[in-house]
Each structure stands twice: as structure tokens, then as C-alpha cells.
Design a protein that fits this description.
Immunoglobulin-like; alpha/beta; 4-stranded antiparallel β-sheet; 22 strands; 8-stranded mixed β-sheet; Alkaline Phosphatase, subunit A
Length: about 550
């Protein structure tokens, strides 16, 4: 009976919380720069995103913390720069000198887990990729999500007594959607990728033609290059339609008036000299937020735009703030939902690049609203043979023309060893082709951005100060993934406390074979209840399941 009363109290409290807190949807497309009609792109066919922008606010100065997916997503999910917790090297569990997952500091939690602890129902669709998980749904720490799966979102099946946070990923604009269009895939991996992307886009009309697109000056203007750029636009048509379908389902569910919708992308275009790079082509992303009237910040105008600087590490503190949850001290981002003076807003965004494939390449970037500074610790070319990227027809075209000596000075830049420092005026040089480091006219700007980078380095740990191999040894000694200790039960009267001897472990439990829940406080049980519990330290194996019957 006490257990029943306890549940009723929880349900009552959750209903109160659900009425006072918004639902939040984070919709994340892949590998896409601001090629959106509402952002001024006259080629884009994006009616649903344009409609969303008309109902919300465009954030025009949004930048990711990395130009490649896994480190960028690691920064989003933690609110920390990936290099500060070991997530900076691209997918270490499959690439690089050692196989390991990042193991964040013991107090670091993914922000959806913090939302879950605060009473939210959390769900993910289609992709994880946090550097302490695999790419696939179901591969990450089980404590982060109530529901982590693939497929469509059924809003009518979500719990009625809790607000929700949903993180929905759209892979149709991924770099792989540009592969194998003019040749037959030969390996099993290529065949799988080709089939997957064909299934995603099978009913999409290719409305953007190669002759419609604008070719950036760092590419040669050839049919193959134009074809890849046009494909990027046409793949976006699929994603735009899918987002429209999701928002229509949200409207039909009756939940739209209580749901904040955030749409963005994990980094820039999946094209050469964009994805993986610290140029704006790799970091600058679109973001739209639709604010229901009751949750709208006082300083925004519906259908308008904001030029405040936003970083990928700002998603976590912002969403936690919107949910009324506590903000952990380790967060390195700023909540951008607050109405603050321009002086209190973010003045700089920071980004990192480290090992890509099997090539170490440490770079760091700092940017204000106009100028970009890049520090390169490895003076080497950004354009190198990367098997995955070489599947692009445009990449093969670049290699062919480079070998023939047919690329001009700007087109060759990416293939030459870069200098230690680069400074760009993105207002007059949006493609970042003219390095101003040695121009005395910009000496003060250079000094200011150097100082901003120095202060950033003092504020956060940068684990790339040590080799990846040494860091991996600390995370997974002798290359073996540590295992989290099994939970320990302590019974006091009819209250069951659960703990783990592994410092920093998150704990889950279930009662009588029900769904797994996040453990946050002692449980009140009835006689005969069966309790199972397991724990996981991020980056380690899950513990064995502990079990007891009350």
C-alpha cells in the first residue's frame, strides 16, 4: 500500500511539473551548412523549414564545436568541448592508434540524463555517436534515454504525466548520401551505404539541377563538382519533408502549444573542405527555434532573426535551463534563452579538430562575429587521402585536377601545408582564403583573438596536450574496457538504497520486469517486489545485473 501511495504522489507531482515545464524537441540534421531558403539561399527547396522559421526565430551565428560528427555530438550532449573530456579524436573505437571510448570525468552526465533525473521522459531516434557510445541506437549508456530506438516518433504514445525531451536525427543529408552515384559500389560497406541512402531518397524528385548551384571559389567549376553540390540540396528536400511530417504529427497530437522545437545540424556540409574542417564551411550551421507563446523569451520577435553568437556547447545549458533543471558547474556553454545585455552574451565561439582517420591533426579555432583565428599544431595539408571522403565524386575530381596542375591558387590552398596561424575577416572573405596574420592592419585583431584563445585554454583542460595513445591507456588500461561494478543494495525499513562502487557510475533499476528507470533516490517497495539494477560509468562496460526480492 505504501508503494501505491508513493506512486500516486509521484504521478501528482509529475502532472504539476508537466503543466509548468515545456516539452522540448531537438531535431538534428547531418552534414549541412545554412542552405535554407529562410537563411537567404535562393536555390534551396525547403518549404517546411521556411515555415518553421516563419513561426520561430532564426539564429544566424550558430557554430558547432567541431567540424565532424562524433566530436561535435559529444560537445552537444555534454555541454563541454570534446577535448576537455577525451572525446576529440574521431571515433576512437574504430580508428586511430588505440581502441577506446572517451571516459568523461566522474561528475559529467549527458544532459538528457539530467533531464530524466528532473522528471522528463527522454527519447532518441536514429543515432547516438557521443564518443562514449557507438553510432547505433542502443549502444550508449542506458541511463540517458527512456526510449532509444530507430523509426518514427509516435507522440500519442508518450507518457501523459511527464514533459518530454526528444532528440531526433535525420541522416538524409549525411555525406554518404553523395556517394556511389556514378559508379557501382564494390564492398559490402559501400553496398550497405548505397542501399540505405537509396531507400531514404527513393521518392525525392531532384528539383535542383547542377546548373542552378553556386560553386565556391575553393572548388573548380566542373560538372562533377556541381553535381555533388546539387545532390546536397536535393538530399535536403527529403529531410525537409521528413521534418514537415514530424511537425504535422506534433500538431495533430495537440502537444505543439507546449513544445519548444529546436532545429539545427551537427556541422557543416558533407563536402570537401567543409566537413572535418575549422573553416565556416565546416562549423557554421543553421538553427531555428519555434517558441510557443508561453515560453517565448521577451527579447525575440516571431519570424525574426538573432545574430547572437551560439556554440554547440550551449545546447546543454540552454535546454536544461528551459526545463528548469539545475546547471552543473562543469558546463562550458552559455544558456542562450536568457534575455541579457550584449555585453553579457557570448563574445567568442571555440572549435577543435584532432585526429581524423589515422592522421593526427590538432587545430584550434576562435571566432567572434567577424574574425576567425586558427592555430595549427601540425603544419600539414587539410586535403589528404581519407578513404571515406574519397568516395565523393567531387573529391576524386579535385585529386585528378591537382595531379594535372589544373587547380588555381585558391583551389590548391587546401592541399598545401597550412601555416601555424591563420586569421580571416569573414565579412569581406567569407570563404576564408586570405590569411591576414602578417598584415599589420590587423595586428590588434590578431592579438585580441590570440588572447581569447589563451584564456579559453586556461579555462578548460585540453587533453590533446598528451598523445592519444597515452590518454587511451588512462581510459582503458592495456586496451581493455573497464567494467562498472555491480550495484549494491542497502535496505532501511522499507526503503531500498542502491549504490555502485564505481565512482561516477549512473544507476538504473526496474521493478517486476518493468521498464528500466534512472535511479535518483531510495525506493519504497511492497512485499514480493523484484528489483533489478545495473550501473554504467560512461565509456565503461555496463555492470552485471544485481537482483533482490523484497
Amino acid at each position: 500500500m505504501k508503494y501505491v501511495i508513493y506512486l500516486l504522489c509521484l504521478l501528482f507531482a509529475a502532472n504539476v511539473c508537466a503543466a509548468e515545464r515545456p516539452n522540448i524537441l531537438l531535431l538534428m540534421a547531418e552534414d549541412l551548412s545554412p542552405r535554407i531558403g529562410a537563411f537567404g539561399d535562393k536555390v534551396a527547396v525547403t518549404p517546411n523549414l521556411d515555415k518553421l522559421a516563419s513561426q520561430g526565430v532564426r539564429y544566424t551565428n550558430t557554430f558547432t564545436a567541431s567540424g565532424v560528427c562524433a566530436p561535435s555530438r559529444a560537445a552537444i550532449i555534454t555541454g563541454m568541448h570534446a577535448e576537455s573530456f577525451g572525446g576529440q579524436h574521431m571515433r576512437a573505437y574504430t580508428e586511430g592508434p588505440a581502441k577506446y571510448y572517451a571516459v568523461p570525468q566522474t561528475d559529467v552526465k549527458a544532459f538528457p540524463e539530467l533531464l530524466r533525473a528532473a522528471g522528463y521522459y527522454t527519447f532518441n531516434r536514429n543515432k547516438l555517436d557521443y564518443q562514449f557510445s557507438n553510432v547505433r541506437s542502443g549502444s550508449g549508456p542506458f541511463t540517458i534515454w527512456d526510449d532509444d530506438s530507430s523509426g518514427e516518433v509516435d507522440f500519442t504514445s508518450l507518457p501523459k504525466n511527464k514533459p518530454f525531451f526528444g532528440y531526433v536525427n535525420y541522416i538524409g543529408t549525411h555525406e554518404s548520401g553523395l556517394f556511389y552515384k556514378d559508379r557501382f559500389p564494390t564492398s559490402l560497406g559501400e553496398i550497405y551505404t548505397s542501399i540505405k541512402q537509396t531507400m531514404i531518397h527513393w521518392d525525392t524528385e531532384e528539383r535542383v539541377k547542377p546548373e542552378d548551384v553556386t560553386v565556391p571559389p575553393y572548388y573548380p567549376d566542373t560538372p562533377l563538382v556541381r553535381k555533388d553540390i546539387a545532390r546536397q540540396y536535393n538530399n535536403l528536400i527529403t529531410v525537409d519533408r521528413q521534418i514537415g511530417q514530424l511537425l504535422e504529427a506534433l500538431d495533430k497530437s495537440g502537444l505543439a502549444q507546449d513544445t519548444i522545437v529546436i532545429w539545427s545540424t551537427d556541422h557543416g556540409d558533407g563536402l570537401p573542405r567543409a566537413k572535418r574542417e575549422l573553416y565556416d564551411s565546416g562549423l557554421h550551421v543553421p538553427m531555428i527555434i519555434r517558441w510557443p507563446e508561453k515560453w517565448k523569451p521577451a527579447d525575440i520577435e516571431i519570424g525574426g532573426a538573432s545574430d547572437r553568437l551560439i556554440s554547440g556547447v550551449d545546447f546543454a545549458p540552454t535546454i536544461l535551463s528551459l526545463a528548469g533543471a539545475a546547471l552543473p558547474s562543469y558546463l562550458q556553454g552559455k544558456a542562450f534563452n536568457k534575455n541579457v545585455s550584449p555585453e553579457e552574451q557570448r563574445q567568442y565561439v571555440f572549435a577543435s579538430r584532432d585526429r581524423i582517420g589515422n592522421r593526427p591533426d590538432r587545430q584550434r579555432a576562435v571566432r567572434d562575429k567577424r574574425f576567425k583565428y586558427i592555430r595549427s599544431y601540425n603544419q600539414q595539408a587539410g586535403g589528404f587521402h581519407l578513404p571515406y571522403r574519397d568516395n565523393l565524386d567531387s573529391m576524386q575530381e579535385l585529386w585528378r585536377l591537382l595531379e594535372e596542375g589544373a587547380l588555381n591558387e585558391h583551389q590548391q590552398q587546401w592541399f598545401k601545408d597550412r601555416p601555424e596561424e591563420m586569421l580571416f575577416d569573414t565579412q569581406v572573405d567569407p570563404h576564408e582564403l586570405n590569411n591576414l596574420v602578417d598584415d599589420p592592419q590587423y595586428a590588434d585583431t590578431l592579438a585580441r583573438l590570440r588572447q581569447a584563445y589563451s584564456h579559453h585554454q586556461q579555462r578548460i583542460i585540453d587533453l590533446s596536450d598528451e598523445s592519444e595513445a597515452r590518454m587511451a591507456q588512462r581510459f582503458w588500461p592495456e586496451g581493455k574496457q573497464p567494467r562498472t561494478s555491480a550495484p549494491v543494495f542497502e535496505l532501511h525499513d522499507n526503503h531500498l538504497a542502491i549504490s555502485s562502487r564505481s565512482e561516477g557510475a549512473s544507476i538504473g533499476y526496474r521493478i517486476n520486469d518493468g521498464p528500466w528507470r534512472l535511479y535518483t533516490e531510495s525506493l519504497i517497495l511492497d512485499a514480493g517486489d523484484k528489483v533489478e539494477s545495473k550501473a554504467v560509468r560512461y565509456g565503461w562496460k555496463e555492470s552485471p545485473v544485481a537482483e533482490m526480492t523484497f
